[in-house]
Task: structure prediction
Amino acid sequence: MYELYYQHGKNLFRSTRASRLYKWTAVRFTFPTHTAIYIYYISRSHHQGSPMAGIGFEHKREKFTSAFDEDEPMLLAGGGSGYDGFEKELPPTAKRAEEENNQKQEPTKYITKMMEEKVSTAIPERSPQPPTICEVPEDIAEGNEGAYIPKVVCIGPLFDSKRETASMLRLERYKWRCVRKFIVGRHRAAGTLESAAVWSAEVHAPLLRECFDEMMRLVPRIRASYSSISLSSNKRDTNVFGDDEKLALNMLLDGCFVLHRLLKYARTGNGGGDDHDDWTLLFGRCWVWGTVKRDLLLLSNQVPFFVVRKLFKLLGSNAGEGEDVLVHGGLQFFSSLHPQPLHSAPIACHDVHHLLHLLYLSIDLPPPPPPDDSPESNKQPWHAAAAAVPSSELTRWVPCAKELEEAGVRFRPRKRGAAKSFLDVSFRGGVLEIPPLQLFDYSVPLFRNLIAFEQTYPTTPGRVTAFAIFMDCIVKTSEDVRILHRSGVLVNHMNGERDATALGFFTGLCTEAHTSADRNYLAGVMEEVVRYQRGRWPQWRAALVRDYFKNPWVTTAVVAGAIGLALTALQTFYSVYGYYKPHN
Result:
């Protein structure tokens, strides 16, 4: 016989026999050795007439189960020194039974308690400055997850679990080389980054520690740059970043790697120069740097730009060199990827959130529609159409290229001098002008991540998304692709069958991406196109083309019939004219 104390709710109970306990009762004993012993099941056993109880214990996160009877009272001594406290630990089924019982007996109290728990654990309010780096929403990435995942280099904490994979290890080692070159180069009189410089712990370690300490001081700001939703992703551990030291270390490594690439392109223009052995370090992957560019433009694979700026001040700046060299290096770095020549207007370094944002800022976006009462509004035919229609009634759709061509709309590539960027679309006099759009294999992740950035960052104008929606309407079939190819609007350099790859590029490009009609900079263009296509003559022309000019044979037959009809009419005229003509 022994005593067992257990707790149910706020009440403490005592039992003289373990057999009197209910099946759902559980008691937890916590020992100073960090070993927890708890009763997880109680039942009567008919074996030799003695009561049996199941017991489980946990030691260093390993769980074990066993059984005991009345001959082992020390494990359940109610007032002994074998434990320093206990708490109720119910099995999952018992917890559900208790919740259902409480819900039936006191529904109001139960609901109130449930609401208090939900509110207390809700996501806290965000700071006035929204995070700039986040995971791509699942509904946007669905079916195209590969366009948002790095292939050769991980940047930032959101893909930290991939750092030790075989495809990433080579560049992870290269990051340490970048750190060494910056540290050693900082101590050289000329400030150059010599690959053969000798490391000295006594000389160079203090600067390395200083850089790490600076990263530690930036940790709160770094965490605020990433979306709080990413901290509790179901795909990863709740603590994505790990401890502060690990986060600071990764920021130091990734920041030096990004800084190294930017300075190379800023100082040499093409990425050559001081690192003549970059390709030999990655022998067997000679084209890896093209993939690196692709990875550095992924939304979730970013490092805050203020980290790069801080490391530039500590390690990378030469005499008389300002922060604008980072922006210049970034524009040079992405020049081969940009659909159009880069934006020439200056971009302030402190306005850049990360590398993808820098590329976004370099796209010369068309100006927003002027107010209705401004003088400029009368000069913009596309704005006049949008201004005449309430925003709730603005069209969100345009016909495909084939239907527009049948209605008499002509497609024309807009000249580079007239177009500020690939987004600058215009429609005048039945001519739809679209800047030439060149498609490469990297265009898919580039456009998708630009759209994902607009969908996750609230202050962007959303014009890349609007352009993608517009092109998704224009291109529906392979025939639409051929029309744009023939007109010079679309140039496809992607691997594979030309029309199929181009069609696949536009299909689903803006899946689950949204933009309101009143914020759509192409709303006026779309309204003008639809209005033109619905005109009486374009509809007649479209019906004529659709019914009588489908193929060359039908066209030939129609033309021959028309000529025959004309000759018959002419013959009839002369016959009648000769009959009524007066004789001289």
